[in-house]
């Protein structure tokens, strides 16, 4: 034991890059010269989880190697998935203890689920298997839904696969590799579509124009979520993809009781549409089971929020919010996700019970507005450079109402409510009381001492009330740092620009010195 | 039998050390970085059916 302690001490002296992190990053690409030293036991844990990740990737890649090579050759966005280990390293930067364990388990769950879905997608893809009768047979049982629509409705069709259509070609690549949207946004602009639309719908339009979506499924549910840009891009995709399509219209003001009847009717009509195109009958028992699992997943999330309200917030950053988005949208009702939640919560509870905080926290920040996809590890940088821990994030808070499973009617009501409180939609389009009032409530609840407010320059709905936020913070005497970003377009606002906004605020308003001076200004423009 | 066991042990240790080196020196991601340029060139040169 003593020998291990001595070894740990020696290796820490030699390799620990805390407070001079930029020294182990390559200039420009920010690729690690060598991976992080986190102390002997945490580095060993991280190594084990990295091996597990490669195990997951190889388990996916090897058995269907020719098909997977073909997919990488065919789709530009598939290259970005090869960089996933680097992406996970970025999201786990500087993490130790329960934080690291929670992050690695969440991310590896995600990797296992996504690679499994790749098999479903590529087996059936008409681009990879043109004219294949086998692929057509598989497509009869694939329901495509817009990525903003949670897949929970699919639990009522247990013989079918429900795939979030844009999740794998657009959303995930945009967080994995910051430059992945640029080519597709350019395509959209070259074809004369307006350049001032939010990069998310622009990316989707570019994929459709270039025919880079896998062609799968027997029908498609689109939606009016989250905003007008998305409605426009649905039309462009619809023309290109050519599947029987039904728009699922989701009311904006989800707090109001008078819109619920309409929302439930929309859900029923979506079920009728899927039944018609798959030839399957909606299975209420299977759906009930899915809703009950989802309720448990949600309760596990509430526990995490409770833990983050303590003096030792053990689970913060993108490995928490990205996992939450994925869980809400892609895997609600999945028993494996629930098992992962319970495992993660045990780590977190143990750390809080022991009273150990393995990170240097100077500030407890509430992060408001949609996070920046092209800088998913922004939270890690905030903590490493300035000691700002993101104890609560707006994007993490959606869809938290439990579904009453006592009758078919109550389940449909709960499902409709869940869809109305979908990712981004719940706050950015949910009205004044959820976007504005909720911020101050969360500030109190999570014992915040500052706010990081994203000024997402393309999100016009939120942009319209940015002055109210500033006024509100001023009236309450709350320190609020405004950080410009463009969701997933690094060519308009780079990571460096975002860091500059924080640096200026921390130095001039807060009058503080950074924890890690090497991270204040460094070059990562070519980074993934 | 003993010889086989010894060989197996040596192979396991060598493999373990190799994997640790790949992990520590980030060799997996440095290799993926090398693939980026040729693959992007391939995607740029692919025939495309651009349509609205
Ligand atoms: S960030 Fe704003 S504009 Fe962009 S998709 Fe979301 S709601 Fe729409």
Q: Nearest-angstrom radius of gyration of chain B?
A: 21 Å
Read across the widest sheet of chain A, the strand sequence of neighbours is 2-1-3-4
Q: What is the percentage of strand-forming residues of chain B?
A: under 5%
Helix count, DSSP H or I runs of 4 or more residues of chain B? 2
Bound molecules: iron/sulfur cluster
Number of domains of chain A: 1
Structure description:
The complex is a heterodimer of chains A (528) and B (52). With 528 residues, chain A is an alpha/beta fold. Chain A has one domain. Helices cover 54% and strands 8% of the residues of chain A. Chain A has 22 helices and 8 strands. In chain A, the strands form 2 sheets. A 4-stranded parallel β-sheet of chain A has the order 2-1-3-4, with helices on both faces. Chain A has a 4-stranded parallel β-sheet with strand order 6-5-7-8. The two termini of chain A are 40 Å apart. In chain A, 51% of the residues are buried. Chain B is built from 2 helices and no strands. Chain B has helices at 2-24, 27-45. The termini of chain B are far apart. The mean pLDDT of chain B is 95. Chains A and B meet through α2, α5 and α11 of A and α1 and α2 of B. Bound molecules: iron/sulfur cluster. Residues 198, 200, 226-227, 229-230, 370, 424, 428, 456, 458-459, 487 of chain A line the site of iron/sulfur cluster.
Give a short overview.
The complex is a heterodimer of chains A (528) and B (52). With 528 residues, chain A is of the alpha/beta class. Chain A has 22 helices and 8 strands.
Highlighted features:
A: alpha/beta; 4-stranded parallel beta sheet; 8 strands; B: 52 residues; 2 helices; 81% helix; binds iron/sulfur cluster
Please specify the SSE layout and strand pairing.
The complex is a heterodimer of chains A (528) and B (52).
Chain A: H1 2-15, H2 40-61, H3 65-74, H4 76-81, H5 84-91, H6 97-124, H7 133-139, E1 142-145, E2 161-164, H8 167-176, H9 180-190, H10 199-209, E3 219-223, H11 228-241, E4 245-248, H12 260-278, H13 284-308, H14 318-329, H15 335-354, E5 363-368, H16 378-386, E6 388-393, H17 408-420, H18 425-428, H19 432-445, E7 450-456, H20 460-463, H21 466-476, E8 480-485, H22 495-508
Parallel strand pairs in A: 1-2, 1-3, 3-4, 5-6, 5-7, 7-8
Helix pairs in contact in A: 2-6, 6-14, 6-15, 9-10, 10-11, 12-17, 13-15
Chain B: H1 2-24, H2 27-45
The structure holds iron/sulfur cluster (SF4).
Iron/sulfur cluster is lined by residues 198, 200, 226-227, 229-230, 370, 424, 428, 456, 458-459, 487 of chain A.
